[in-house]
């Protein structure tokens, strides 16, 4: 198989990136991204994107430092559909783990929905292990709130 190398850079999200991240979710999600960017100014979260050498934003992910003094929490991980299974998600997770270590965290955790076995397999491959279950909820575009039970995974850094 022929391979085509593409340079990828992981960098902080800037407000002008929001239009280029519309692929990552609906309007409620994009509002959450904008709010997370605000929180990044306070140092509560680290919000990064993956930029391909043509300027396209192909990945998004966040690290929440406010939930726990020991563990950083990864969330909002998303890779553009056309760029999945090429290692972008792995690059994102590793970059956010590095940011967590730089902020003094000794472990990172994230939660995954039961109907997302592909993502769970990726995290397991990256060294994450199940440490529990929890209830989570988030707003949907129609104004309702979606509630589900997720598996909490953790990796020591
Ligand atoms: C989950 C998600 C973030 C993973 O991102 P990704 O870029 O596809 O992840 P990677 O490419 O690093 O790894 C995915 C698979 O591709 C394979 N892969 C990694 N690098 C590769 C490469 N260079 N060439 C070919 N395959 C590769 C990996 O083996 C991996 O397989 P596995 O999951 O069976 O172990 C992405 O699928 C996504 O955005 N999904 C929708 C939103 C979502 O579910 N978010 C997570 C919520 S918890």
UniProtKB/TrEMBL annotation:
UniProt keyword Nucleotide-binding present: no
SUPFAM superfamilies hit by this protein: Acyl-CoA N-acyltransferases (Nat)
Gene3D superfamilies: 3.40.630.30
Keywords: Acyltransferase, Ribonucleoprotein, Ribosomal protein, Transferase
GO function terms (MF aspect): acyltransferase activity, transferring groups other than amino-acyl groups
InterPro entries hit by this protein: Acyl_CoA_acyltransferase (IPR016181), Bact_Acetyltransf (IPR050832), GNAT_dom (IPR000182)
GO cellular component, one term: ribosome
Keyword Ribonucleoprotein included in the entry's annotation: yes
Record domain N-acetyltransferase: where: 8-157
Record's protein name: Ribosomal protein S18 acetylase RimI
Organism: Auraticoccus monumenti
């Amino acid at each position: 198989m022929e391979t085509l190398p593409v340079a990828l850079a992981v960098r902080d999200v800037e407000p002008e990136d929001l239009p280029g991240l519309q692929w990552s979710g609906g309007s409620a999600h994009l509002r959450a991204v904008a709010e997370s960017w605000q929180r990044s100014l306070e140092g509560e979260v680290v919000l990064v994107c993956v930029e391909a050498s043509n300027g396209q934003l192909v990945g998004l992910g966040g690290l929440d430092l406010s939930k726990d003094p020991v563990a950083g929490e990864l969330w909002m991980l998303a890779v553009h559909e056309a760029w999945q299974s090429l290692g972008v998600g792995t690059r994102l997770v590793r970059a956010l783990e590095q940011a967590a270590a730089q902020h003094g965290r000794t472990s990172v955790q994230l939660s995954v929905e039961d109907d997302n076995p592909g993502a769970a397999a990726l995290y397991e491959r990256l060294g994450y292990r199940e440490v529990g279950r929890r209830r989570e909820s988030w707003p949907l575009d129609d104004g309702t709130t979606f509630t589900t039970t997720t598996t909490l995974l953790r990796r020591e850094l």
